[in-house]
Design goal:
homodimer; eight-stranded antiparallel β-barrel; disordered N terminus; Cyclophilin; four-stranded antiparallel beta sheet
C-alpha cells in the first residue's frame, strides 16, 4: 500500500493518460491525442473581428494579466456582439473594473459607478448606436430543411437535463429543442441556444423585457448555471487568461459584490480592444514596437470527424486511469479545443 | 434603454428574486424562501465526528483561513473516511500544503515531499492502521426490497448523462444505475455513488487497483468532472471556506502543480482536526480560551418534503427574473442547503 501510493503520480493520473507500457493496457488514443493528430484542415481560424483582448491591471507581483474572449459567431447573439464591438471601439470599457466575484458562479465587470452604493463618481454615458434585442433572440430558430444548421454533423448528447439534446455548432456548445410552431402547420422546427458552460461570457440585464446592452458582462467561474440559458444572452467565451478572472478574491458583499471595506479589491480593466483593431505582429516597427499586437487563434471545427472522435473518446473514457467509463458526458465537459497560433 | 439598464441591479437579478411588487408577477416562493420556511425537524445535525476543520496559513493580508469539510456518512466511502480520521488524529496532515491548483478542475493538498521533483525533505511515513479498499467500494449496491435505500423518498433526476438517474441520499448528491446481477437470478439491484460536484472532496490515487489511502485529497473547483465518478473515492464536501481553496493562484506546472519557480505559492495547511476532538464552545475557559472550538452544522434532510419542494422549484424556476424555466436540472445545481448553528 505504501509503495503503491504515489501522491504526485496519482494526481497526474487524475487527468493525463499514462503510456501504454506503464499500465499494461493497449494504447488507445486519448482525447488530447486525437486532437493533436487532427489535420490542419480541421482547424478554423477565428476572425480577428471576433477576438476581444482585455487587459487587466498587473497582479500584486507586477505580472501582466491579459484575457482573450472569442465572440460568438452568427447566427447567435449578433445584436449583443455588435454592441460589444461598439463599446470596445468607443473605449467605453477602458477603466471599468471587476466589481463582483461570486464563488461557484460568476465574475462580473462593468462601470463601478453605475447604480452602485460604492460609487465615487458619475456613471459613464452609454455610446450612441446600441442595438436593442428582443428575448426571442436568446435562441435561434431553424426550419427542418436540407442545408439548415439543423442537418449539420456534430455529436449529439441526448441526455441533457436542460434541453432535448446538446450538440456543437460553429465552435460553441449549444442546446436544442424540437418544436412544432404555429404559422406553418406541422413543419418541424428546432431552436438552438448557446449554453452557460465554464468560461462562457454573458450580458447582465435588468428585469424582462430588458435584454441588456453589453455594458455589463460576466463569465462563469463554477459549475455551469444552465438555468440561465435562454434567460440571458451569451456572447462568447474566454479562450485565454481565464485564471485571471477565476482566481480573484471572492467579494464579501451580497451576491459576491465587493463590499464597502474592500472596494480596493476591484481589479481595474485598463483596456478592451477588438483584435482586428490591433497592429499585426509583423507590422512595421513604428506601429508595433511596445504596442499590443494582434493575437491569432484557431478552434477545432465542431463539425469535423476529428471533433466527433474526440467527443466519443470523452464519453467512453478508455485511458488507463479509468476503470468505469461513464458512457455519457455533460456538454460542458466536452471543451472545444482552441489553440494560439503565430499571427 | 439607458434608463432600463441598471448594471448592479441587473447583476442582482442574475441570482436573487425581486419582490413581487417590483416585477408585477405573483409571489411564488423561491428556492431560498422554501429553505428558510423549513420546519426545524427537517434539519439534520451533522455529527462532530463527520466534520473536519482544516486551518490554512493566514492570507497575504493576515486574514485567517479555515475550511470545514463534511465527511460522507455510511454507507458511502467508509474505509476512506476511517483513514482520513486516522490521518487527522495522527496529526499527519499538519504542515502539509496545497500543491496543485488546476483551473476548472481541482485544488489538491498533501505531503509536498512525496514523489515530487520540488521536494526539499523526506516524505512523511504513513500512520499505522490504514484500511485498504477495493474498487467495488466506489459505489454501493442495494437490493430492491422494502426498507432499503432504494425505496427512500427523494427527487429523481432522470436525465443524468452519467447514470440512470440522479438523486440525493443522506445529504449528498448521488447517481444510481439499475442492474440485474449474477448470483441472484432476476433480483433487481441498484448501485448508488456520490457525484463529483463543485466542492466535493476526493482521494488521489495511483493506477488501478490502487484506490488511494486519503493522504492526498482534492476538491472540485470547476465544472463537475463527473467522469471521475466510480473511478475515485469521494469522501465528503467543503461546507465552509470553499473560497479559500477555489481562489488560490493556479499553478503553472503540468496539471496545475506549482512549478519550480513558484513553490512559495503552496499554501501551508497548519492543522486538520476532527471536530469531535475540539472543545465545545461552551467548555470551561481553561480548555476553550484562545483555542479552536467545535463548530456545529446542519443540513436540510434530502429525504424531506421541504427538500423535494426546493428541488422542484430549482427545476422549474418561477422567480420573476426567469422567462424560460428549464424544466430540468443538473444534479450539481441542486445544492444541499447547509447552515452553521450555535454549538
Amino acid at each position: 500500500m505504501n509503495k503503491a501510493f504515489l501522491a504526485a503520480s496519482a494526481a497526474l493520473a487524475l487527468a493525463l493518460p499514462a503510456s501504454a507500457q506503464e499500465s499494461g493496457k493497449p494504447a488507445i488514443p486519448t482525447p488530447p491525442q486525437i486532437v493533436a493528430a487532427a489535420p490542419k484542415s480541421d482547424w478554423v481560424a477565428i476572425a480577428p473581428e471576433d477576438l476581444l483582448v482585455m487587459t487587466l491591471a498587473p497582479d500584486a507581483e507586477g505580472n501582466p494579466r491579459t484575457v482573450v474572449i472569442q465572440l460568438i459567431p452568427a447566427p447567435f447573439s449578433q445584436g449583443w456582439v455588435h454592441n460589444i464591438r461598439l463599446f470596445a471601439r468607443a473605449k467605453w470599457y477602458d477603466n471599468i473594473s471587476v466589481n463582483r466575484v461570486q464563488d461557484n458562479y460568476v465574475t462580473q465587470w462593468g462601470d463601478p459607478n453605475y447604480d452602485n452604493p460604492e460609487a465615487t463618481g458619475k456613471p459613464k454615458p452609454l455610446p450612441e448606436g446600441l442595438k436593442v434585442m428582443t428575448e426571442d433572440e436568446y435562441s435561434t430558430r431553424f426550419r427542418d430543411r436540407r442545408g439548415s444548421m439543423f442537418h449539420e454533423p456534430g455529436p449529439l448528447l441526448p441526455k441533457d437535463p436542460y434541453s432535448d439534446f446538446g450538440t456543437f455548432r460553429r465552435g460553441f456548445p449549444v442546446a436544442g429543442s424540437y418544436s412544432v410552431e404555429s404559422g406553418d402547420g406541422a413543419s418541424k422546427y428546432l431552436r438552438y441556444w448557446p449554453t452557460h458552460c465554464y468560461g462562457m461570457v454573458g450580458v447582465g440585464r435588468n428585469y424582462s423585457p430588458d435584454t441588456g446592452s453589453g455594458a455589463e458582462l460576466y463569465t462563469v467561474i463554477g459549475h455551469a448555471p444552465r438555468h440561465l440559458d435562454r434567460n440571458i444572452a451569451l456572447v462568447g467565451r474566454v479562450i485565454e487568461g481565464m485564471e485571471h478572472l477565476s482566481s480573484l478574491p471572492r467579494g464579501k458583499g451580497e451576491l459576491g459584490f465587493y463590499a464597502k471595506d474592500e472596494a480596493a479589491r476591484r481589479t481595474p480593466i485598463l483596456t478592451v480592444r477588438v483584435a482586428s483593431d490591433l497592429p499585426e505582429a509583423s507590422a512595421s516597427s513604428s506601429e508595433a514596437v511596445g504596442q499590443q499586437t494582434r493575437p491569432a487563434f484557431e478552434y477545432l471545427s465542431t463539425e469535423s470527424d476529428t471533433f466527433a472522435a474526440y467527443a466519443e473518446a470523452i464519453v467512453n473514457r478508455r485511458d488507463p486511469f479509468f476503470i468505469a467509463p461513464a458512457g455519457g458526458a455533460d456538454i460542458c465537459n466536452i471543451k472545444v479545443p482552441v489553440r494560439r497560433v503565430a499571427s
